[in-house]
Amino acid sequence: MTISRRTLLGSSLIAPALLRPAFAADPTKVAFVYVAPIGDAGWTFQHELGRRAMDAALGTAVKSSFVENVEEGADSERVIRQLATSGNQMIFTTSFGYMNPTLKVAQAFPKVHFAHATGYKRAANVSTYSARFYEGRYLAGVIAGRMSKSGVIGYVAAFPIPEVVQGINATLLGAQSVNPKATVKVVWTSSWFDPGKERAAADTLIAQGADFITHHTDSTAVAQAGEEKGVYTVGYNSDMSKYGPKTCLTAVTMVWDQYYINTVKAAIAGTWKSDDVWGGIGQGMVKLAKLNPAVPGNVAAEIATKTADIAAGKLHPFAGPITGQDGKIKVAAGASLADKDIAAMNWFVAGVQGKI
Amino acid sequence: MQLKLEARPARLAAMVWLSPVVAVVLSAVAAGLLFALLGRDPLVALYTLFIAPLGTVMGLTELGLKATPLLLCAVGIAIGCRANVWNIGAEGQFTIGAICGGGVALAFGESGGALVLPLMLLAGIAGGALWAAIPAFLRTKYNAHEILTTLMLSYVAVQILGWLVHGPWQDPEGFNFPQTRQFLPHATLPLLVEGARLNIGALFALAVVPLAAVLLGRTMTGYRIRVAGLAPGAARYAGFSAAGTVWFSLLLSGGLAGLAGICEVAGPVGQLQPIISPGYGYAAIIVAFLGRLNPVGILFASLLMALIYLGGEGLQMDLQLPPAATGVIQGLLLFFLLAADVLILYRPRLVLKPGVKHA
To answer: Does A74 touch chain B (CB under 8 A)?
Structure first.
């Protein structure tokens, strides 16, 4: 093959134009920005599953792409800007740290639609979306309350941000709903993904008497630790049953499929508008993975009932009375916590052993 | 049979400058092969990696923006290396510089006017220098090697940043997310090109190149540094203070890394948050060696490194290549550079009978 400028230009510029079928409308370009490599479990993996489901559902109407492992510092703004420049009409930025970069780029590209996961700033062309992970956590807590003998639940957590604090509190409240003496011990890893630290934290918790562990981190280390030591676990983000076939009882998983399908459909139809989606079990954005056979039938039935109750809005994980770690009443009997207070949660429920 | 490396009797001065070029060309060829193996058109991929980012104003400004912290950190590291002082912890000095400068921005809030930005820059430089002063003290007082202390202090610095943004400096209106308030316009660096992110930090970095070159090549301090690096015994004999050289090179490289840190947060980041650097301080070590520990060489090396980052993003976006491909290309580059260096100084020779010595 002779290498010339022409082959270079030909292959990069002309060929795509020729290959594009003349009869079909141009597909809508959609891009995703991921904070970690996709891997085979975890936060980014779930978004990728959502992207693939969206691709499958919308077929040739859409052409989607992704950029993985994009740091949350200054680099993300360039990646997002580049995606907007190269003709993407809808861009999903799937990590909290992309919030300000997304808004900055959105300002320069008013015709491009943006959706930012887990943030709180919106604009005319920037939506936000997140899931009520705590609803799934509450159910996991009920399982923990039923299955733990010591009543001590170990919790491997990354950072004390509201999303994580909600999960810890909801887990304990779920456990206390069936075992009032239940407590939660927290170990912070200061990292979203660090299998070594997560493993060490899980081992520490087991040594301190926890006989049920869960985690708010991205790896499968906790499920693996539980399997080795014969301690029950609940996974997070993705179904981790294959890492703990005997002991991983379920996982609190995020399912973005329908959100991505609906949002991209709206973008194609021209009906997209900026909004804030915070869906939970009722909207199918949070699901418990298939329960392990080790969960007895009566507990499984209880979970099914409570799942339906949460979906129907009859059961609120943060319904009062709730006492804080400091002994003060945080939510009065008969009331339940408002969304804005859940979103900014920075206190622990009584019974959590750990500090924010 | 064994392979032996023999010192070459004479060496070509030109090869010292040619070897990075050879390394770059060889890495490009190897990268092309890699792309072909991954099922992509190698020419399109190489074009995306090395040329496409240079084709637009945005690409060029982003290149400058990305090269700035690499250049600042690498020049400091290089001056240290020339004096045999190994500052592996530019990442930590970068972080502390960002914290100190950012702290000034937060303390002033809406007040301070035109005074704020210069103070932020000075605080950033001072912070980085101060962080590097710890290893300098430990080295000169207790003979603790700076490779270990600078590296370990980097982790400490990142934890301090994490604590500040999760705790006392957290944005009160930020829903408890780990970040400070965004810096106000008078506390952010002026932009050089309308609509792009390139800021005057790039000019600081550019100014540092000739200053460092003059320092190393034309001043007594530079001479002491070079002698301390090349012949520590001679430096001692000449009465050059070994401790003075350690202090000078660590404070200088720390200050430069600190300047890079404050330029990053007062520039494209615009606030303090847990992650402010994708490892600039570590990548700058590669840049320093790629640039032959020479300020002008480092200027080119930092641009090349920045180009590979940008091109790597393009490979992901346009050709769906995994980010690891960029990492492999960076590794190849370093591999070929080291290989070229060895082959300039030595020639490989096959020795047929290992036991027998040649007369």
So the answer is: yes
